[in-house]
Amino acid sequence: MLGEVQATAEELKEKLESVIAMTSFATMMGAKVLSISPGNVELAIDVKPAIMNQHHGFIHGAVLGFVADSACAWAAGSLAGDVVTAEYKLHFLAPAVGDRIVGRGRVIKASSRIVVAQADVYAVKNGSEKLVAIALGTLSKVDRK
Predict the structure, then answer these.
(1) pLDDT above 90 covers what percent of the chain?
(2) What CATH class is the domain 9-141?
(3) What is the C-alpha to C-alpha distance for residues 30 and 22, in angstroms, rounded to an integer?
């Protein structure tokens, strides 16, 4: 987010919240930053069943993909500055049922051009978390020259 500059958790959170505010899809999804530190992020969305559930009553995979992609990208951005997703692999582990989805992203490796990050995605029901998906992503640093 702040690119190679040491930043406090509060500064990182403020920057990420400003990015979310400028990103209409993240805003529509209701993304909230729960915590952030260099190389790590935790985010959540409250489930809106009328628009987020699929025909079996589970939370749609696209919602889990958004949380996984965001967790990877936002963790990477907290270290590398502005990034975009080059690719990610998403593994669905269990049907997602609950009232909240939580994503926890962490950087695995950062180089001068790319960052590899991992995300764990949880469905929260009655206060209990269940791991429903994992992702591995590659993020490219955005060169604004």
Answers:
(1) 92
(2) alpha beta
(3) 13
